[in-house]
Amino acid sequence: MPRVRANGIEIEYESFGPDDAEPMLLVMGLGYQLTRWPEAFVRLLVERGDLRVIRFDNRDVGLSSKMDQAGVFSAAQLFGERMQGRTITPPYTLDDMARDAVGLLDALGIDRAHVVGASMGGMIAQLIAADHRARVKSLTSIMSTTGNPMVGQPTPEAFMMLATPAPPPSDEAAFVAHALRVARVISGPGYPLDEQAWTERVLADAKRGYHPPGFVRQLAAIWAAPDRTEKLRTITAPTVVIHGELDPLVQPDGGRATAAAIPGAELVSLPRMGHSLPAELYDELVSAILRAVERGRGRAI
Fold it and tell me: pLDDT by residue (tens digit) across 59-113?
C-alpha cells in the first residue's frame, strides 16, 4: 500500500476506484486499522456512488507513524484517572488527528472530499467538517457522539471490555478468545458474529501492525476531548448520522445528540445494529451515506 507524509507524520492509505472520481475519505475508530473498513463495503461505495474511496491508518495504528516518542501511557493509570474524574493530558488530540486526515487530502491533491467516520473516526470527521469546512462535501458520522459526557457513554460491560488488556498475539488462542469476547459484547445480539471471519481478520491485523500503546494514546485523546456540541452547530456540510439502537460502546443517545446539534442532519437509527458494520446492513449503510453524498454534490462552499 502507498504512504505519504502529512502533518509531520507518515500515513499509510489505500485507494479504491478511479483516481479521477469524486473522493471519499473513510476515518476508522479507536485502535483499528484501515482494514476494519470491510473491502466489500468499500467496493459497494465505489460502485454505487461512482467514487474514489480512500481508507487509511490513523496515527499510532497499523502502518502509519507510531507516536512512541510521546511516551507510553499505562492503561491502568489512564483508566484510574478516568474513574476518579481527573484531567487527562493526552500526547496528542483528536484535533491533531483531524489535521492528519486533512494533510492526507493535501498530499493526494484533493481539495474537497466526502468524509465518513466511524466511532472515534466519527469524532475526527466531525472536527474536519467543523474546522476545515471548505474541504468537506458531505459528512457521515457513524456510531459516534458529541463529546458531551452526559451522552454516548459505554455500558458497564462495554467499558470493562475497553479496560481489559488483550493477551499478546504470541498466545494465539488467548488473543483470539479475547477478541471474540470483545466483538460479541460491542456488536450486540442483533446480527450473528461470523467468528471464523473475525478470527481471520484479528490475526491478519495483528500480523500487519499490532501496537497496543497506540490504542491507549488514542483513548486518552478521546477522553481528553472537550464537548463538541457548539462546534457541531457550525457544520454546513450535508450530514447523515447513523447509529445502532443496540450499541453498547457508544450508546444511541450519542448519535441522537450528534444529529440534533448539526443543522439539517438526517438521523438513521438502525434497530438491530450494535457497535459494528454487519454485512447484513451494507446496502442500508451505503444508501444512507450516499444520501449525504448526493446532497453534497455540486454544493457551493
Answer: 999 999 999 988 766 777 787 777 787 888 899 999 999 999 999 999 999 999 9
Domain count, the chain: 1
User: What are the backbone dihedrals phi and psi of residue 250, each rounded to the nearest 5 degrees, phi first?
Assistant: -125, 95
Q: What is the CATH number of the domain that holds 34?
A: 3.40.50.1820
Strand partners for 139: 115, 239
Q: Which residue has the cell 454534490?
A: 297
The domain containing residue 117 runs over which residues?
A: 3-296
Question: What three-state secondary structure class fits 56?
Answer: strand
Q: Are 203 and 176 in contact (CB under 8 A)?
A: yes
Q: Spell out where the chain has E strands.
A: 3-6, 9-16, 22-27, 51-56, 113-118, 136-142, 239-244, 266-270
Q: What is the DSSP string of 224-266?
A: HPPP-HHHHTT--S-EEEEEETT-SSS-THHHHHHHHHSTTPE
